[in-house]
Write a structure and sequence with these properties.
- By secondary structure, this protein is an alpha+beta fold.
- It has one domain: PK beta-barrel domain-like (M1 Pyruvate Kinase, Domain 3, Beta Barrel), CATH 2.40.33.
- It has 4 helices and 13 strands.
- The strands form 3 sheets. Strands 1-8-7-11-10-9-13 form a 7-stranded mixed barrel. It has a 3-stranded antiparallel β-sheet with strand order 6-5-12, with no helix packed on it.
- Helix 1 links the parallel strand 7 and strand 8.
Length: about 200
């Protein structure tokens, strides 16, 4: 297996109340935290993980959310600029709401249908993430979703091709799919459509 793609953290959360505005709370499982050891990977996601709103998260095509660790420095900087966090506050893995914090794989390298082959499971790139008001609430400022759109730092949803287990420290291999629809292009198209609606 290639060392280019590495799992830094496997993150899960149960749904719980999240403050999203003045006197407004909603259920959310965006607050993921890293777990140790091998985690079971089923067709609908990781053992111990929940989705609060199955209309936009979860299901066969959005079973697992993966995010590149390389973008964490960007979000740490913009949160400090927005004065919602100190400059030296490192964000913990899972902060973006991702199940898998990955190193060595960014959105520009991914296309719908690409396969991520790990030692004990196989995942397939299914869709870019579409940020919402819950993302703004977790990040601590209302322009976070807009910055995700501008930067293209969206991460990807993965479908489970072969269930099994996954653990922090494992390496994986990217196997190209049909290479017809790229993640950055699809993300811009989908988000542009939502902004017009």
């Amino acid at each position: 297996m290639s060392n280019a793609l590495r799992v830094l953290s496997v993150n899960v959360a149960e749904a719980r109340p999240l403050d999203v505005g003045e006197n407004r709370r909603v259920q959310s499982a965006i607050g993921k935290r890293g777990v140790s050891g091998a985690v079971a990977v089923g067709r609908l996601g990781l053992a111990g993980d929940e989705q609060a709103d199955p209309t936009v998260h979860g299901g066969l095509d959005k079973a697992i959310y993966a995010y590149p660790s390389e973008h964490y420095a960007f979000w740490q900087t913009v949160r400090a600029q927005a004065r919602v966090a100190p400059w030296d506050e490192a964000l913990p893995h899972g902060f973006m709401g991702e199940n898998l914090t990955l190193a060595g794989l960014r959105e520009g390298q991914l296309w719908i249908g690409d396969v991520l082959r790990f030692p004990h499971c196989v995942l397939a790139v299914a869709a870019p993430r579409q940020p919402c008001y819950k993302f703004n609430a977790v990040m601590g400022f209302n322009q976070a979703s807009k910055l995700m759109l501008q930067s293209g730092y969206c991460g990807v949803y993965l479908a489970v091709r072969e269930p099994g287990t996954i653990a922090a420290g494992e390496t994986g291999e990217l196997q190209p799919g049909p290479r017809e629809v790229g993640i950055p292009e699809l993300f811009r198209a989908v988000m542009g459509r939502h902004r017009r609606d």
